[in-house]
Amino acid sequence: MTTERYWERFHPTTGTRPPRAWFRSDAPALDLSGDWKFRWSERADGPLDFTSASCDDADWAVLPVPAHWQLHGYGSPAYTNVRYPFPVRPPLVPSENPTGDYRLTFRPPAGWRAYRVVLRFDGVDSCARIWLNGADLGVTAGSRLPAEFDVTDALDWSADNLLAVRVHQWSSGSYLEDQDMWWLSGIFRQVTLLARPAGGIEDYFLRADYEPVSGGGTLTVDADVPARITVPELGIDVGIGQPVTVAAVEPWSAESPRLYDGVLAAEGERIPLRIGFRRVAITDGILTVNGRRVLLRGVNRHEFDPDRGRGLTAETMRQDVLLMKRHNINAVRTSHYPPDPHFLELCDEYGLYVIDECDLETHGFFIAGWRPVPDNPADHPDWRDALVDRMRRTVERDKNHPSIILWSLGNESGRGRNLTAMAAWARSRDPSRPLHYERDWACQDVDVYSRMYSSHTEVALIGQHREEPLEDAALDARRRAMPFILCEYGHAMGNGPGGLSEYQELFDKYPRCQGGFIWEWIDHGIRVRGPRGEYFAYGGDFGEPVHDGNFVADGLLFPDRTPSPGLLEFKKVIEPARIARDGDVLRISNRYDCLDLSHLDFVWSVEEQGIGKAAGSLTVPPAGPGESVAVPVPDIPPVAGEAWLTVRAVLAADCSWAPAGHEIGWAQMQVAGAPAPPAAGAPALVTAGAHGIRLGPGVFDPADGTLTELGAIPVQGPRLDVWRAPIDNERWFSSEPNELAWKDLGLHRMQHRVDEITAGPRELIVRTRVAPAATRLGLIAIYRWAAGEAGEDALRLTVEVSPDGEWPLPLPRLGVRMAVPARLGKVEWFGLGPGEAYRDSCRAARVGRFTATVDGLQTPYVFPQENGNRAEVRWAALTDRYGAGLSVAGDPVIDLTARRWTSEDLDAARHPADLEPGSRIWLNLDHAQNGLGTGSCGPGVLPAYRLAAGPAAFTVTFRPLSG
User: Where are the alpha helices (DSSP H) in 449-524?
Assistant: First the structure.
C-alpha cells in the first residue's frame, strides 16, 4: 500500500462512481451509523496497519458516526472567517495534519448476494481514503458532497467485513472550503451500504414544468434504464423519456408547496416521487416562479448544532424548517455548500425557496482585497477538474427538488475561468434554473445580479437601474437587465441588526430588488460547561492561535435554537399580511406572492393601559396577491386612558407547520391618548437635616445632590450616563467602529463634577459637568428635583443636558443610571414589549402591559453586550415579592434597562457565565440610545437613528411603593 500524499493532489478524488441523484427506494439499504473504532494521530502519513483484519484495535477509542472528532476530545475546534489556519501554499498542507483512522466490522445481509453493493458517504471532512477488507477503494474530497464506491467485488459473504477509513483534517480541498465556520473534521453525515438490484435505477432526472397561463403541467422523466412513471392523482401511467402534458395542475411554491405522489418503477426498483410542478424564469428582468414575481424573505443557513457541529439530526433539520416558516421566512441560501439531502426534502414538503450553493469558497486568497490572485483556484487551470467536479456533484445530487430555484457556483472565490467552466456545465445539464454567484459583479457567468451588504442608498440606485456602470457596455446592459438579490444583508451579529425595515421598503418599491437573505440563521456557539456554568464558545476559546473571535456568532437563533430578538424583528418586517388604518377603515394589504388571504383570520382587541376592554373578529375579503382591501374600523368602547387597537392576522386552520391561531402579522393603532395629568398640587418644601436634604419622599446627599433614599428604599443616583457595553456592530471590525472612538475619548470612564447645589425652598437644583479625562469636551447636566406636583408621594426629576464643545461622534446613550436593592427583581411596565427594542429595531415590539423578572429581561448574546432595553415605557414598577419597591414614569416615555450588573461589568465579560449578580439592580432610564445598524458586516446606523450630542431634556417621576 502506498503512502503517497494523495491528499495534496489538486483533485484527489479517485475510485468513486459517477455522481447521481440522491433518493430513497425499495432497494435494500444498511445504515452503518453507530459506534466505530477510532484512532487519532497528529500526522497524515501514519502506518496503514489498520486496513488489515489482523490489526488489534482492542485499545482503540470508540467514536460515533456521524460526528466530528474535535467535539469528542480529539484535537480542538478552530474558527476562522477569512484566513486559512495554515500556510497558503496550494495545494500543500502542513505535515502536522490531524488524521482519524476509523474501523467498522459488519456483515452484509445474506439476501444481498444477488445485488451489486455500493458504499455511500454523504459527508466527510475534508479528505478520506477507504478500504474494504484490505482492498483500496479510492479517495474522496469535497466535504459536503456525497461519494459512492462499488464494493461488490470486495465483500466477503462468509465472514465479518472490515471497513477502514482514513480521514485527514487538511487536504487540497481545504483551500476550497474556507467558509466562515468552525474547522471540524470527520465522518459527519450518514454512511450507507446500498444494495443495487439488476435492472435498478441508477439515476433519474425529473422535470415538472408549469404553464402559468393555461394552468397546465408537463412532466418529463429521464432515467438510465427503461422505467414507467405513475402519478395516480393525475392519471399518469407512462413510460419515461417523453413529456407528459396535464391539462390542469396545482403549482408548487413556497407559499403553497403542492406535491403530487408518484412512483418511478423499473424492472428491479421502485422509487417514490414527490413531484412539484413549477417554472422558474427571468422575465423582463424579474425573477419569477410560476409567472409571478417573487420577493425572497430569506436567510443564509449554515448547518450547525452546538453539540454535534454540522452533524444534524433529522429532527433538528425539521426544527429549523418549522422555525423558518413560523417566522414568515420563505427562502434559504445553503451557505456555502449543499446541505444534508434530508433538509431539501423538508424544503420541498413545507415550502421554502432554495439557492443551492456549491461547496466552494476560497476567501483566504483575498486577505489584501479582491484583486486577482494568480493561484486562486477559481482561475488556476490546475484546479479546474476539482471545481467542475464539485458543481457536477451538487447539481446531480439535488436536481430533482422543486424547492431549488437557483444554483449557486459558490461564495467569495473571486472570478476566473474555472467558475466559467462550472457555469457552462450547470447550464448544459439543467437550463431550467438560473445561476447565482455573488462575486461575479460584472455578471459574466450568472443570471441574477447579486451583492452582499450593500447600503440602502446603493440598493435604491440598483432598483432604479442607476448603479455604477461597468466599463464593458454590453456587460453593463446585460447586468442592468437582471433581477437584483442581496444574497447577504442584515448581519445578525449580537444585538441587531438594525435598519431591516428600510431595506424592506426598498424591496417593495423597486420591482428589480427581489429581497435577500439575512446573514445568518444560527449562532455557531459550541456548548461548553465550565466552573461558572454553561456557555457557548466562539473563536479563541479553544486556544487557536489564528481565529476570528465571536464573528461566528452572527445568527437569528442562539446556538440552542432559541429565537433572538433579531428573528422576531425580521418576522415583523417581512410579514406578508399588512394592516394599517386609513381614516375610518383598516386597509389590509396582501404581500404574498401567490396566496390570497382566505387562509387567514383577522382578530382585533382594544386595551386600555394594557388591560383588555373589547375583542372581536373582522370580515376580510380574500384579497389576491398584491391587492389590498378596506374594512371598517371596529366599534371602540369608551375608554378613559391611553388605549390601543391591535389587529392580528392569524392562521384560520391548522397547517403542516403551525396550528390555527398562529400569528402571521399584526398592527397597532392608538385610539385614545393618555389623559391629561391632574392639576399640580402644592410643591413640597426642601428641608435639610442631619441625614441629608429631604424633598417629598426623597433624601439626597448634601455633598453631591444624588438621591440616597426613596421612601424606605435605599438608592444610588440617578446620575447622567452615556455609556453602554458596545454591541458587535460598534466594535473594532465594524464599518463604524464607535467603540474605539468612544473609548479613545473616554466615554466609558466619565467623571462627574458637581458645580452647584441649590436647595429650596421648593426645588432642588444640582448643576454638574460630566466629562472624560484628557479632553475639553463635556456635557453640562442640570438636575431639577421637585415633589408634590404629581402627588404627595411623587418625586419628579427633569434633566437638562447641553454639550460643551464640538462633539465629533454620536453618544452611545443619553439618560440616567441608578442602583436599587437586588430584592426588587420583579418588573412590570406599560410600554413597548414584551421583548427588547431599539431605535432602528423596534417593529416587533407592541404597546402593552408586561411583566418579567430582572433576569428575564436579559438577552443572553453569545458575546455579552448592550441588551434588554424596553422602549417607550410610560411607567414601570420594580418590586420585591411583597409588592414593595418603586415606580418610574416618563413624561411621556423613557427607555428602561434593568440588570444585576453594571454596563462596565457587561463590557468586561466575554461570556454570559462571567456575569455575576451583585447586591444591587442597576437601572438605566434613557432619553435615547444610539441605533444598532448592521456595521459588524454592512452599513452602520442610518442617520435618522444616530444619537447626536445636542441639547436635550427629559423628565422622570419616581414613587415609592409600599406593597
Answer: 456-463, 473-480, 500-509
Residues 536, 482 share a domain: yes
Same domain flag for 13 and 84: yes
pLDDT at 1 over 70: no
Query: What is the domain extent for residue 927?
Result: 686-962
- Residue 790 is predicted with a pLDDT of 63
Best CA proximity match to 949, nearest among 731, 783, 779, 757: 779
Residue 824's CATH number? 2.70.98.10
Residues 412 and 270 in one domain: no
Separation of alpha carbons 163 and 622, rounded Å:
60
Residue among 269, 488, 736, 739 flagged as catalytic: 488
Number of domains in the chain: 5
588 closest CA partner among 620, 549, 557, 561:
620
pLDDT digits 0-9 by tens, 114-132: 999 999 999 999 999 999 9
Average pLDDT over residues 934-957: 97
Determine the Cα–Cα distance for residues 235 and 798; give it in Å rounded to an integer. 77
Last residue of a domain, one of 650, 672, 694: 672
Determine whether 412 is an active site residue. yes
Compute φ and ψ for 363, nearest 5 degrees. -55, -35
- The pTM is what? 0.97
The one-letter code for the residue type at 355 is I
C-alpha dihedral sign at 918, 923, 928, 933 = positive
Three cell numbers written together for 147: 461519494
User: 581 and 563 in one domain?
Assistant: no
Q: Which of 412, 467, 739, 866 is catalytic?
A: 412
Residue 8 catalytic? no
226 and 188 assigned to the same domain? no
Rounded (10°) angle between helices 500-509 and 565-573: 20
The closest alpha carbon to 857, from 821, 815, 899, belongs to 899
Q: Are 859 and 953 in the same domain?
A: yes
Domain boundary among 221, 252, 281: 281
Q: Is residue 377 part of a domain?
A: yes
Helix (H) or strand (E) holding 862: none
Q: List the helix and strand counts (H, then E) for the chain.
A: 10, 57
